[in-house]
């Protein structure tokens, strides 16, 4: 009897200890999950149902912080919209892990590797910087995971550095150039160009020139300035002497030429200014360009469709009345594309299997219908011909729609030699 009683007590002790360990392990796992996931979007699910994990790379701090946060906000809203608030697709919950690249390619690689190896994500999304994105591209192919490119614009992403696991919802540099040309070019139109004297400026003008000449325009002068310069008088004087109908400007950086263009009264001399409309903070310094005609990737009043209406309304509700900015709809579009692909695959997140599903896939977005072109996986999409105008109650020049530029009009050249 004593021996049996001892065995019984031992059994009870082991049972209690096992339960305690189980509870402690579950608690530790929950704590670890809360600490390791930057922004979870879903609750726990049963093992049978499974979970789809998405890793989003974005500049959440640093110089491009506003871009990264726009992408993050848009992605979260996009998942909610695409799943009707369930945060699941094909019976599987969706979990999102955001990682800050700090706009440093080496950090982007570290964070992407962590997402792929430790978090075992099924998809990558990003990034705010083309440099970060280009550094990460080989990992998508190595791990055979679909990567949605948003909002990086470098042509080489879907060009020379293309691999079949990449799908871009953002537009590329050539689409910007084609849109810029479509907004102003035509038979007999004379255009001068002005850009910084390095690869960003050369590539932008080269793509614009090809598109503008294809539409019958003549490029009468090309001016390039030191990107660190603050005085552009000599460049602008040469442009005035060429007497163009338009001056198309490609520029990035704080030392912009807008004030000197206004001081030299180019528009009063009959030279219309054209460029791409930036995000809202940058629009606030474009007061000298009121009246200019150009193009826009997105401004919240430009698209006319129910998805954009939903985005604007929900964004205002959640972010103290603020409207979505330049890259918010891109984040939403990336989320919609993932849900659409998983719906078609019935929840199969295998990267190789998804390639065939996503090539040629069309889906609805805040900017209307987009289609992943099979040849390079670039999303063909609408952009907008606009005019900057002052509006009562708005403290920056507002992009006002002249006309929507269709996906066919803004289709860029295929650059990957596939």
From TrEMBL:
<feature type="signal peptide">
    <location>
        <begin position="1"/>
        <end position="22"/>
    </location>
</feature>
<protein>
    <submittedName>
        <fullName>ABC transporter permease</fullName>
    </submittedName>
</protein>
<feature type="region of interest" description="Disordered">
    <location>
        <begin position="25"/>
        <end position="45"/>
    </location>
</feature>
<dbReference type="Pfam" id="PF13458">
    <property type="entry name" value="Peripla_BP_6"/>
</dbReference>
<dbReference type="InterPro" id="IPR028081">
    <property type="entry name" value="Leu-bd"/>
</dbReference>
<keyword id="KW-0732">Signal</keyword>
<feature type="domain" description="Leucine-binding protein">
    <location>
        <begin position="51"/>
        <end position="389"/>
    </location>
</feature>
<comment type="similarity">
    <text>Belongs to the leucine-binding protein family.</text>
</comment>
<dbReference type="InterPro" id="IPR028082">
    <property type="entry name" value="Peripla_BP_I"/>
</dbReference>
<dbReference type="InterPro" id="IPR051010">
    <property type="entry name" value="BCAA_transport"/>
</dbReference>
């Amino acid at each position: 009897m004593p021996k049996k009683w001892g065995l019984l007590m031992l059994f009870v002790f082991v049972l209690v200890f096992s339960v305690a360990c189980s509870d402690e392990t579950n608690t530790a796992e929950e704590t670890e999950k809360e600490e390791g996931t930057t922004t979870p979007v879903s609750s726990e699910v049963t093992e049978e149902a499974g979970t789809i994990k998405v890793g989003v790379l974005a500049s959440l701090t640093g110089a491009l912080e506003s871009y990264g946060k726009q992408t993050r906000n848009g992605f979260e809203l996009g998942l909610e919209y695409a799943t009707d608030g369930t945060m699941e697709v094909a019976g599987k919950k969706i979990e999102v892990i955001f990682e800050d690249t700090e706009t440093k390619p080496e950090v982007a690689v570290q964070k992407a590797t962590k997402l792929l190896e430790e978090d075992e994500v099924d998809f990558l999304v990003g990034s705010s910087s083309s440099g970060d994105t280009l550094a990460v591209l080989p990992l998508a192919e190595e791990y055979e995971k679909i990567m949605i490119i948003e909002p990086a614009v470098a042509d080489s992403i879907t060009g020379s550095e293309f691999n079949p696991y990449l799908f871009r919802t953002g537009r590329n540099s050539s689409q910007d150039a084609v849109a810029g040309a479509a907004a102003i070019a035509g038979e007999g139109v004379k255009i001068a160009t002005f850009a910084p004297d390095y690869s960003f400026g050369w590539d932008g003008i080269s793509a614009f020139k090809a598109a503008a000449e294809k539409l019958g325009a003549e490029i009468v002068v090309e001016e390039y300035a030191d990107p660190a310069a603050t005085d552009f008088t000599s460049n602008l004087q040469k442009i005035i002497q060429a007497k163009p109908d338009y001056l198309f400007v490609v520029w990035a950086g704080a030392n912009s030429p807008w004030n000197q263009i206004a001081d030299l009264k180019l528009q009063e001399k009959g030279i219309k200014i054209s460029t791409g409309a930036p995000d809202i903070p940058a629009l606030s310094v474009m007061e000298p360009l009121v009246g200019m005609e150009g193009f826009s990737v997105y401004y919240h009043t430009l698209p006319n469709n129910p998805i954009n209406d939903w985005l604007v309304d929900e964004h205002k509700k959640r972010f103290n009345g603020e409207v979505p900015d330049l890259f918010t709809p891109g984040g939403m579009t990336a989320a919609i594309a993932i849900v659409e692909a998983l719906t078609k695959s019935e929840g199969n997140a295998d990267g190789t299997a998804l390639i065939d599903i996503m090539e040629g896939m069309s889906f609805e977005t805040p900017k209307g219908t987009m289609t992943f072109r099979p040849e390079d996986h670039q999303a063909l999409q609408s952009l907008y011909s606009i005019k900057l105008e002052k509006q009562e109650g708005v403290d920056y020049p507002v992009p006002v729609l002249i006309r929507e530029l269709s996906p066919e009009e803004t289709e860029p050249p295929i650059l990957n030699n596939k």
